[in-house]
Amino acid sequence: MSVHRLWAILRKEFRHIWRDKRTLFLVTLSPAIMLFTFAYLFAFEVQDVRIGVWDMDQTTTSRQFIASITADGKFQRTLTLNSYDSVREALMSGSIHLGVVIPPNFQAHLTAGELSPIQLVADGSDSLTASQTVSRFRQRTVDFNRQIDPSSADAGPLISVQTQAWYNRELNSTYSMVPGLLPIVLILPSLAIALAVTREKELGSFETLATTPIRAVEYLLGKLIPYIVFGLISAGVAILLSLFWFRVPLRGSVIDLVILTVFYLFASLGETLLISGFLTSQGTAMRVILLIFFLPSFFMAGIILPIDTRSGIAQIASFFLPATQYVQMSRGIFLKQMGIPELLYQAFYLLALGSVPTIISMILFKKQVD
Q1: pTM greater than the 0.85 cutoff
Q2: Residue range 49-166 in CATH 3.20.20.140
Q3: For residue 103, what is the DSSP state?
Q4: Residue ranges covered by each domain of the chain
Q5: If DSSP states are collapsed to H, E and C, what string results for 43-80?
Q6: Which of 126, 273, 298, 334 could form a disulfide with 179 if both were Cys (CB 3.0 to 4.6 A apart)?
Q7: What is the greatest pairwise CA distance in the chain?
Q8: Which residues are within 8 A (CB) of 5 and not within 5 positions of it... i.e. 6 or more apart?
Q9: Is the pLDDT of residue 293 over 90?
């Protein structure tokens, strides 16, 4: 690889972005504008809820209570917990949406006609899911109260639900929605690089490049690096908007957030470069990128609703969407004080999503126009 040729491509791309005001706007300010708009827009209903249960009573009644909660499959018991540390770890990793803590003497209190509390620990970093699932859990508790004591509708319930939301105590939807929307608005640099690649084919400038000694690695890195840099600038503007306009707390490290944002940009831009190699017009590029990345990321990456584990198609789509990992990263760093050590899996996953398509693009790169 020639550093001189790579620098020539880099300089050309930086100049193009700086001089083309539409592209400059697309990769710098437009993500912040989209974040501002979308943060006020969305509200949906959660379908499947994963719960972890810490049953300190271990009686027939406590097991019947959990069985009644999970009877229709909408609440799924996925973990058995044994401490508050295990509750915290399960919520941090996203393995569960709710932690259910059943105290000792649960059955004894009910048998004696006394009030017995159930503690519900919710992941407040996803306030939409937390508020809906807590409400539905309370309703199912009311139904179980009626099963064990039909007179409870008049005399008052025997089981009370005490709720505590971690990471977002007030269940402020803005706190969870704004970090979740960051991967959506940062798709715009991917759209910009797709338009840049196809524009060269449309205008014939790629033919000029084909006559030079430029190599695939130099051409592709010369495309990737400038858009990662400008994408990082746009991410910075969006993050500042999150902090100072929406007042979202940033409990983790800014450095970790920047590093993982670079990984996300690398993954989304790498996939876009591979796809753009098969496209020949800017109009087609715009439609394809919006269809493959933008719309699926809204509904299949866990931004608004948890990933639908019942659907194989949804799981496969989320597997290839960089936004799926970055949602966990951004919410984790903003609200859970997580860092790179806790997010290593997601980081390596994004590196793989960026590296594999980039390598394939280098292999398939042809210095000719069809």
Answers
A1: no
A2: no
A3: P
A4: 3-41+173-364, 49-166
A5: CCCCCCEEEEEEECCCCHHHHHHHHHHCCCCCEEEEEE
A6: 334
A7: 88
A8: 212, 213, 214, 215, 218
A9: no
